Task: inverse folding
């Protein structure tokens, strides 16, 4: 696990660091602390990360820009903030968890459990997926996304208007964020349940899901039973 | 059919007779010097004989002492014609005589007068003559006077009321001007209608005219002055000065043509006020349109009634307008005052909020928990520092100015807390502080918070804050310096944070506009200056 802590209160940063080390133990590959926005952004650009722990109010800055940048990246983001009223915004933008200050080790451990997907999260608040397009961050409404296809480390978002957008997060990570409405019906596909029109068996006993827009998505053998049960 | 009055210098009793050939008499005499006796004869047609026991009366306005004959019969005497040089002035300028009923049959009659004009020998003639029911002649002016006194009284009350309002707030010059204008208008009314209540000998009448013209001069200056203050335009003092010059010229140049002077001044007043109102409308000033409409309304009024009536109607309309403008301003002031109360409450809340807003409170508590868990002794000291800051805030929260020493203590305590949170060596320095000075609460504290938030420690993990006080007779100046490495420059300047708004609002609350505040990055970190002008 490679983790970055973005926090301008040194005492609190040390606390997070200490607890993180205690929780992950040997599972921790790297742990970096940054107390300014610029330094954090530089580090994100140049290093591979699995998780960012983010304070939204750095040096008097409104953390919204930082938040959208963070959630568009490949890693998961957990916000640790003094402002509980930011929780809804944070979840809407697809953070994995929101830890309000003051916090203790148990709460932090609970948040980390989500990273390891030990705990299935039920985030039905997510409204946007942040994507990077031409050097800028764009917010794609989740309701416009029909299905998502894994493409290596990246994913492709297939939208209701027929467009396709790239997202930096892996299919596994998006599945964690979108599990309330999307189902992993294939190792490479995450599909919005409400978009499935029919399930059919094609030649060679292949299972296919037909979507409302006419697209045919293969269904993994191991997933078929589960899906059939859920869909009916 | 109209008859003309004819005149003849000389003194012959038979000139009073009804049937006298006066065709050779003069129609106009410019001058009768030395109080010589002269006669006048006026033919009068009675169109309808009076009812029984309701005699006709005769009202005259003549600059002279005289005897009046009606069809050869002496019906009245006003002073001592011909003996004015020897006897003291007697009689009145306006007189009313009753005409015996038997002399007022339908038909042609003759009013002959034996006069002398010692004091104004160039004012020869009958200025006003009215024949009507005697009783009506005596009462109609009294009734008119009663109304005009009530009318004038209203303006007197307004004048006194606004004078008191002005005395209560001596900065409100429009109120004073309005008060004076009302008083002048009241005086004008009283002077104009004084003739019914106070007997005036014709030699003294010029005093009344002087007073009226003088009052008009005052009013003609004050009304545009008032409008200039309500709808200020560029260089209004200069324009008003020029206007005053013109007015003074009109007032002096043909001074003894009183009616002419009054008319010219009124025209000047109208034109200038009209200009100001137009500019006011151009500038979208509240009430300017109403002023313009009122001024325009004065034109038809002028041409539909007599000059005097239009004068009183027009002025009262304009004064009502001024009153309306005043009420608008009073309303504005009331709103501003209410606003300032709300603002004070808001500032107080903002000060209180400083230490319970989540960023401060939750970060502090998180750090505090950490200190207690890790180093309980330090944790206790942290709590003590926190308690001290809360205590200080409690002491100052309801004040608008606090001793500078208290504010500095607040800052030092805050630094103590922040040192536990940020683990930075904060140090505080001061120079030239005068313990007797006062300052709005929380403004240095706000600058300090900003300094902490927007700065990174220098290489020795140190951030230094320095407060410098300088003063001389014209200003006091606080310079607040941060010695640190700046986090970033661009983000701070992008918009005014709530902190700076709080500082500015507090300065305005206590010093109105007599302050200056600057906040800028410098080589060593940040520099703020607060200048208070005396």
Result:
């Amino acid at each position: 696990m490679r983790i970055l802590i973005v926090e301008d209160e040194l005492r609190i940063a040390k606390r997070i660091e200490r607890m993180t080390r205690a929780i992950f133990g040997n599972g921790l590959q790297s742990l970096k602390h940054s107390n300014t926005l610029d330094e954090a952004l530089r580090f994100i650009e140049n290093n591979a990360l699995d998780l960012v722990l983010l304070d939204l109010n750095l040096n008097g800055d409104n953390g919204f820009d930082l938040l959208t940048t963070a959630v568009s990246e490949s890693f998961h983001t957990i916000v640790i903030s003094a402002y509980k009223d930011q929780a809804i915004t944070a979840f809407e933008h697809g953070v994995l968890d929101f830890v309000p200050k003051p916090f203790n080790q148990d709460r932090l451990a609970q948040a980390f459990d989500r990273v390891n997907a030990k705990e299935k999260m039920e985030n039905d608040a997510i409204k946007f997926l942040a994507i990077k397009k031409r050097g800028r961050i764009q917010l794609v409404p989740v309701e416009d996304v029909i299905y998502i296809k894994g493409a290596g480390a990246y994913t492709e978002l297939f939208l209701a208007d027929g467009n396709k957008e790239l997202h930096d997060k892996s299919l596994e990570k998006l599945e964690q964020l979108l599990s309330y409405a999307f189902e992993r019906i294939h190792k490479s596909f995450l599909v919005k349940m409400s978009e499935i029109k029919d399930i059919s068996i094609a030649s060679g006993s292949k299972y296919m899901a037909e979507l409302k827009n006419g697209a045919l998505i293969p269904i993994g053998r191991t997933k078929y039973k589960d899906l059939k049960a859920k869909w009916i | 059919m109209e008859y003309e009055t004819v005149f003849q210098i000389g003194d012959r009793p038979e000139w009073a007779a009804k049937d006298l050939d006066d065709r050779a008499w003069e129609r106009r005499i410019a001058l009768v010097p030395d109080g010589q006796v002269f006669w006048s004869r006026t033919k009068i047609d009675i169109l309808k004989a009076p009812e029984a026991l309701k005699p006709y009366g005769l009202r005259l306005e003549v600059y002279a002492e005289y005897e009046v004959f009606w069809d050869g019969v002496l019906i009245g005497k006003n002073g001592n014609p011909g003996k004015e040089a020897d006897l003291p002035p007697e009689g009145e300028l306006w007189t009313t005589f009753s005409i015996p009923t038997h002399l007022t049959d339908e038909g042609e009659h003759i009013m002959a007068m034996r006069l002398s004009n010692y004091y104004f020998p160039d004012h020869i003639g009958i200025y006003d003559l009215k024949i009507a029911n005697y009783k009506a002649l005596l009462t109609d002016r009294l009734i008119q006077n009663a109304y005009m006194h009530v009318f004038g009284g209203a303006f007197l009350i307004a004048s006194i009321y606004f004078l008191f309002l002005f005395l209560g707030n001596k900065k409100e010059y429009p109120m004073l001007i309005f008060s004076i204008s009302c008083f002048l208008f009241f005086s004008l009314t009283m002077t104009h209608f004084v003739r019914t209540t106070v007997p005036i000998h014709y030699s003294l009448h010029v005093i009344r005219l002087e007073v009226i013209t003088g009052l008009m001069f005052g009013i003609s200056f004050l009304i545009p002055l008032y409008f200039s203050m309500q709808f200020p335009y560029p260089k209004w003092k200069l324009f008003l000065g020029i206007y005053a010059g013109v007015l003074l010229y009109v007032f002096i140049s043909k001074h003894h043509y009183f009616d002419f002077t009054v008319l010219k001044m009124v025209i000047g007043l109208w034109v200038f006020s009209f200009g100001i109102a137009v500019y006011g409308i151009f500038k979208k000033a509240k009430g300017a349109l109403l002023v313009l409409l009122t001024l325009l309304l004065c034109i038809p009024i002028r041409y539909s009634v007599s000059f005097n009536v239009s004068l009183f109607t027009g002025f009262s309309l304009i004064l009502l307008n001024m009153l309306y403008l005043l009420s608008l301003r009073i309303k504005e002031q009331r709103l501003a005052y209410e606003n300032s109360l709300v603002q004070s409450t808001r500032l107080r809340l903002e000060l209180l909020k400083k230490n319970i807003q989540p960023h401060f409170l939750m970060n502090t508590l998180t750090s505090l928990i950490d200190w207690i868990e890790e180093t309980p002794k330090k944790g206790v000291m942290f709590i003590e520092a926190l308690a001290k800051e809360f205590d200080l805030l409690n002491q100052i929260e309801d004040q608008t100015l606090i001793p500078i020493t208290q504010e500095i203590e607040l800052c030092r305590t805050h630094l103590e807390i922040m040192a536990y949170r940020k683990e930075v060596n904060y140090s505080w320095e001061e120079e030239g502080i005068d313990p007797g000075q006062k300052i709005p609460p929380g403004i240095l504290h706000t600058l300090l918070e900003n300094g902490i938030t927007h700065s990174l420690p220098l290489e020795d993990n140190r951030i230094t804050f320095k407060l410098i006080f300088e003063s001389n007779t014209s200003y006091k100046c606080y310079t607040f310096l941060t010695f640190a490495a700046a986090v970033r420059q661009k983000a701070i300047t992008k918009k005014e944070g709530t902190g700076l708004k709080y500082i500015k609002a507090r300065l305005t609350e206590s010093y109105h506009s007599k302050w200056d505040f600057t906040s800028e990055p410098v080589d060593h970190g940040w520099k703020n200056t607060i200048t208070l002008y005396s």
Observations:
- Chain A has two domains: 2-115, 136-231.
